Amino acid sequence: MAMTLRLTEEDNARLDELATAEGRSKQEVLRLALVDRWARLHKQEQLDEVLGRVLPRYRGLLDELGPV
Amino acid sequence: MAMTLRLTEEDNARLDELATAEGRSKQEVLRLALVDRWARLHKQEQLDEVLGRVLPRYRGLLDELGPV
């Protein structure tokens, strides 16, 4: 899959800086940035799912403890 | 600045998923992923700089405290 990515001068400078700092190509930096963002989305979804399952179970206890 | 970004099928699917989940264009998702990665690089550099400046000042105290 190829797509044309349009970057502002500022964002292109950031990409250059990252590529230099990481010793990676701009392609690879963008790929890793994408994979990171995708992994964070899934971590957030998993956390939401676990909290949605666990919090109701402890609601009574949490209510007894009162506000922090 | 325009560049051609080549993505594997898997990475392209991740990008599609992010765009849908965030309600943003693929261009915008990539831009935000890039800016996030750049911000993290700078936070890490700032942390390294502060630790490099602060830790030596407390070396004597840390040595007295001994290993954790």
Would you give an account of this structure?
Chains A, B: It comes from Actinokineospora cianjurensis. Chains A, B: This is Ribbon-helix-helix CopG family protein. Chains A, B: Residues 4-34 form the Ribbon-helix-helix protein CopG domain. Chains A, B: Pfam families: RHH_1. Two copies of one chain form a homodimer. Chain A is mainly alpha-helical and 68 residues long. Chain A has a domain at 26-68. Helices cover 78% and strands 7% of the residues of chain A. Chain A binds chain B through residues 1-9, 11-12, 14-15, 17-18, 21, 26-27, 29-38, 41, and chain B through 1-9, 11-12, 14-15, 17-18, 21, 26-27, 29-38, 41.
Key features of this structure:
homodimer, 68 residues, mainly alpha, 3 helices, 78% helix
Quick synopsis:
2 copies of one chain form a homodimer. Chain A is mainly alpha-helical and 68 residues long.
